[in-house]
Write a structure and sequence with these properties.
Layout: H1 2-5, H2 20-39, H3 49-68, H4 73-76, H5 78-83, H6 89-116, H7 129-136, H8 138-154, H9 159-172, H10 186-193, H11 196-208, H12 216-239, H13 241-248
Helix pairs in contact: 2-3, 2-6, 3-6, 3-8, 3-9, 3-11, 6-8, 7-11, 8-12, 11-12
Domain ABC transmembrane type-2: 16-240
Protein name: Transport permease protein
Keywords: Cell inner membrane, Cell membrane, Membrane, Transmembrane, Transmembrane helix, Transport
């Protein structure tokens, strides 16, 4: 399968090879921990800031990779599209599957990390929700990547602002802060609760870090957002199939 064959393509020429899939996000977490916990003191009053931070940073990579790299999906499959006639949506779906394959070893390492690192988060029955949460956000990733791939194929200049959007979403999704820190700003809290990225991370932290049963309303909301984004992404790409083919043939 194309997804499996290219799953580790981005790191095949490095000395550490596949180990970078695990090492890189933990190095990022270490840097952010130093800045936000040691320097800025965000960890004060937090029962397990290390686990909170690591789960947030590592899990958000599934979203950010599908947003940041979707702009290159059509370019990478240009020769395939020129040779065979098939729905371009399948390229995006295969790419999302590839990001999930890439993510599996990092997920395992993350779970071992929160178990071994004080104050420790041990496996419970709530951990059975973990694969469901990651699968629930998969249609969101496919839809989001479809929109980005379509827009950047038709308007290449857009790829230069995708990174800014991704970075803003990263900081707005509660990677370093909790929603309780904005208790005095209820309107801002309401806006944060509408962010699918925050809801996704909050569900994961509830079951992994805090051993809480995830809130049903957040599950439902994330599911609606995920299916909605999938439908929008499919529609946008389907309506622009012909325009994309012309743009890719230049």
């Amino acid at each position: 399968m194309e997804s499996n064959a290219r799953a580790y393509g981005t790191i095949k020429d490095t000395f550490l090879g596949q180990a970078w899939l695990i090492v890189d996000p933990f190095l990022q977490a270490a840097v952010y921990y130093f800045i936000f916990a040691v320097v800025l003191g965000f960890s004060r009053g937090h029962s397990n800031f290390v686990g909170y931070l690591v789960v947030g940073i590592i899990s958000f990579t599934l979203l950010s990779k599908n947003l940041d790299s979707a702009a290159s999906v059509m370019g990478a499959g240009r020769d395939l599209v020129r040779t065979f006639h098939f729905p371009k949506f399948s390229l995006v779906a295969a790419y999302t599957l590839r990001t999930y394959i890439d993510f599996l070893p990092t997920l395992v390492a993350m779970l071992f990390f929160v178990i071994l690192m004080p104050p420790h988060s041990y496996p419970t029955l709530n951990w059975l929700y973990i694969p469901l949460i990651y699968l629930l956000v998969a249609p969101f990733c496919v839809g989001m990547a479809s929109i980005v791939a379509t827009l950047t194929t038709l308007i290449p200049d857009i790829r230069f602002i995708i990174g800014l959007i991704s970075r803003f979403w990263f900081y707005a999704s509660g990677i370093f802060w909790t929603i309780e820190q904005f208790a005095g700003q209820p309107t801002l809290q309401d806006v944060m609760l509408l962010n699918p990225g925050w809801v996704y991370l909050n569900l994961l932290r509830d079951v992994i870090v805090y051993n809480n049963t995830p809130a049903l309303d957040q599950f439902i909301y994330l599911g609606i957002c995920s299916l909605g984004m999938f439908a929008i992404g499919f529609f946008v790409m389907w309506r622009n199939e012909e325009k994309m083919s012309k743009a890719m043939s230049r």
